[in-house]
Amino acid sequence: MSDGNGILGGGVFFERRRSAATSNRRKWVKTREKWLVVLGIVLHAVYMLSIFDIYFKTPIVHGMDPVFPRFSAPAKRLVFIVADGLRADKFFEPDSEGNFRAPFLRSVIKEQGRWGVSHARPPTESRPGHVAIIAGFYEDPSAVLKGWKANPVEFDSVFNRSRHTFSYGSPDIVPIFCGALPHSTWNTYPPEFEDFATDASFLDEWSFDQFQSLLHKSNEKKEMRHLLEQDNLVVFLHLLGCDSNGHAHRPFSSIYLNNVKVVDSIAERVYNLVQGYFEDSLTAYIFTADHGMSDKGSHGDAHPSNTDTPLVVWGAGVKTPRPSSSNHSHCGFRFVDNHLHDALTPTEWGLDGIERVDVNQADIAPLMSTLLGLPCPVNSVGALPLGYLDLSQAEEVEALLANTKQILNQFLQKSQIKQSHSLYFKPFKPLLHYSSILDRIEELIQTRDYQGAMKLSENLRDLALEGLHYFQTYDWMMLMTVVTLGYIGWMVYIVIHVLQSYASLPGNIATKEQNAHQGKSSMKVYLFGCFFMGVFSLLLLVDRSPPLYHAYIAMTVFLWTRILTEYEFVKALWRTLCMKRSNDIIKLLASCVLSILILEFLVNSFTERRLYTWCFLIAGAVAPFYLSLLFPGRLAIKAFVWGACWCLSIFTLMPSEIPDNTKLVVASGPLIILIGVAARWQGLHIEVNEYWYSILKLDYRPKFPMLLALQVFLVGLSSLMVFLSTTHRTEKQELPVLHQLINWSIAGSSMVLPLFSAPNLLVRLTSIFLGFAPSYLLLSIGYEAVFYATLALVLMAWILFENAILYLSKVNGSSTSEHEDRSLRLSDVRVPLTFMVLFNVAFFGTGNFASIASFEISSVYRFVTIFSPFFMAALLIFKLFIPFMLVICVFSSITKLIGLPQLGCYFLVILFSDVMTIHFFFLVRNTGSWMEIGNSISHFGIMSAQVCDTLDFKIIRLLCLKRSISPDKLLDQLWHGKYYLQTPFLLAPDDHENAECCSCKRVRIPSCGPGDLGSNPATPEHLLG
Ligand SMILES: [Zn+2]
Ligand SMILES: [Zn+2]
């Protein structure tokens, strides 16, 4: 096709001038697109890293001095027992016969100690739980990324402050705290012991036995005996039994419940052993758990069954039970797990009459330190629970003050580090005069006003905690603003690019735009940008910010500088917009709002796939209605659109874990054949008219008349093979090699067949649909096979809908003939938006993110019987890919059908995807179960990757287009073959020329040509559709 053959038409006079200008312009657009693609990939990669600087930063600082409490230690040693995975209700409640499972610890609660519920912060996992209890802070979840076993950062702990720590338990927990501790004696069982198949309570016995033999041995070893008689000792017994049994048998099982009894008996035996050995009643005891266990036998999230753990404290320095005054204060205080302070004690626990003191998990660390008279761990954020301590008022104040000073020290250290780095430092205002508050507290202690001192200390501690949070999120505002501005800049830049390259604009805009990119004024802007970047870099250097900060800011400044170079264009655009009728402006705004609504809908669909049901119910009602407004008659088409949409709406109501239903898979074979044959029959028997012509194009000569029959046969055969293979499996027989071979050859051969189909839209799409059906059927286990057929119907409905609109515009004479390409209009936005909805439903129609992770082996066994995870995963990914591919094919053919510039459409898809990326960026979270944290990151990651993928696709295209210029026929053929693979829409040979230039053909010279509306700038309707 010659250059002059576009929408511009044009007289002979302009021809020569224009072709020169066009080729220049084409080159320019191509270069810019390549460059945009690279920029886009770098930008998304860099911004993806930003979430680690924003959401996942370690709360730990170093260099604080420990604060020694100014009173004598109430206890000489501490015995500390953690029952891993013991949830509070299973511990406190009676069994069905009314017997309590932990008789010893209950007697402690009733007679000699204190109790409560310890609230864990999600992720409720073993490592964060133990770190919170023993070191007093909530570990940053990203510590996991840096390795579970080793300590990603050095932190202080109660064990660290002790004279000596004896520790026995799991190899996953004990070494975290004792591995690098010189003053510790510890031992762990080999990891093989944690075998889930057996009753794991013997692990608890193992820990107890170790401790018992230590005491026995010390009777012979003098040094050991001497050590044990010292003060500031900690004995830590980690009991893994409940966790292992909970995972393996769930917390309702008799094995788990029996393990609660084991744990209680160990507590009793330890108590008797220690009391007998030391005979001095100077031992304090703490019994708790790191997290609970959900009914399903897992832990991690914020459900109360996971966050609520028992806490029982008794012995030296601990208050004795006090009758409950039912003084649950309705102060609205929330624990770290967001549960309310005034949660009532269930009556079946039988502990109503005894005062309960709930704590945050990290509060246990200062409690342990205070009992031993040690300074709190320097990184602790725990608030000392005074309700447990049996101290005089003066001592209570001193203990609280030590706790307050330790948290204040952390705050001051963080504040100082930030201040020493910052040029412009914003201090945490409420604590500017902290020293005067401290002086006031000392004064009050001198005058023995302990109540007043207590109150002031508590206030100061709360402020210090707030201050810590303030510095933890100090850079958030800046980083989030920079990254968001960067994304917005990128989107604005894409909009400008699409407008300049794919929309037809009034002439005056284009002239200015051309001037701009020729670089007369842009030099100044670039200098300006460089200056800005230099200033920012300098500021960041002075602030000693991480190197990535430079990258975030560089990206953002760079993008906005580029946008500024288009200043003249934007200004002209704005002027044109201002001249428009308000009607057009409203249209533009309405389109924007509608687009954002649809994108927000897509964002929400990531967590709630049922939304698609509503979406397609509404689409099924609205689309036919809209069509009947446009052109009456043709009831069949409207009924088809309605039916297809409503059918598809059912699938997102079905379970995401696809239940086995072989009959359904077998039955989908004939269904798919029916759809394929019906489509072809339509092509041959429909009355030829304007409407059908564009999608049927009846003048083709089929090269292979038997192709359809062959494809139908293969689909039928695959249906049969599904039946045969499954029967074999249900009879517990090995799948014969012959079956596997047949399955492989059916799937392989049928995917090649679409290449031989006739080059018209309906025939080729039907052929692709039939070609991938056998592979999909053979990989299906249930309703997803029907989904494949239904999705195809909806895609067909989409084509019919777009064709109706095209037909109408032709009838009204507002459109050029079919093969001529036009520029983008505002109303064309519906095509990329529909594409995005369908692209997502192609995934969510049969599952969600969790359902990919759960590996369903039965869906691949028709191809492989030997277990090989990578190969099986590859097959599953291929299966996921098939519906996507159908959607992409239809999208490409629709852009072709209505003559839209395909690359322009892809840029719009990127633009819309980035609206979603921004939203997911703000939805990233750093608390919750690993699953929730992981999902929030992966949603953001998937969106970024989707954009990069689309961009990759464009790189390939741009490269291909370049190569195709070669006149060599053989190479051309080769390329043609490649092109089939790379762009799923299979172009007809006679359209080949067309395809070569599809990126450049849309480029116009808006300044000339009578067909262009630029000649009439007063009413540039093209711009606003
Ligand atoms: Zn655990
Ligand atoms: Zn566990």
Automatic annotation (TrEMBL):
- List the Pfam families: PigN
Molecular function terms in GO for this entry?
A: mannose-ethanolamine phosphotransferase activity
Specify the pathway.
Glycolipid biosynthesis; glycosylphosphatidylinositol-anchor biosynthesis
Tell me how this protein sits in the membrane.
Answer: Multi-pass membrane protein
Tell me the InterPro entries matching this sequence. Alkaline_phosphatase_core_sf, GPI_EtnP_transferase_1, GPI_EtnP_transferase_1_C, PIGN_N
Q: Does the keyword Transmembrane apply?
A: yes
Gene Ontology CC, one term:
endoplasmic reticulum membrane
- Domain (GPI ethanolamine phosphate transferase 1 C-terminal): residue spans on this chain: 466-929
What keywords would UniProt list here? Answer: Endoplasmic reticulum, Glycoprotein, GPI-anchor biosynthesis, Membrane, Transferase, Transmembrane, Transmembrane helix
Q: What is its main location?
A: endoplasmic reticulum
Q: List where in the cell it is found.
A: Endoplasmic reticulum membrane
Transmembrane stretches, start-end? 35-56, 476-496, 525-542, 548-565, 585-605, 611-632, 639-658, 664-683, 704-725, 737-756, 785-808, 829-850, 870-891, 903-924
User: Is Transmembrane helix one of the keywords?
Assistant: yes
Q: Which residues form a coiled coil?
A: none
SUPFAM superfamilies given for it? Answer: Alkaline phosphatase-like
EC number in record: 2.-.-.-
Family under the similarity heading:
Belongs to the PIGG/PIGN/PIGO family. PIGN subfamily.
Q: What does this protein do?
A: Ethanolamine phosphate transferase involved in glycosylphosphatidylinositol-anchor biosynthesis. Transfers ethanolamine phosphate to the first alpha-1,4-linked mannose of the glycosylphosphatidylinositol precursor of GPI-anchor.
**Name of protein:** GPI ethanolamine phosphate transferase 1
Q: Which organism is it from?
A: Nepenthes gracilis
The organism's lineage is: Eukaryota, Viridiplantae, Streptophyta, Embryophyta, Tracheophyta
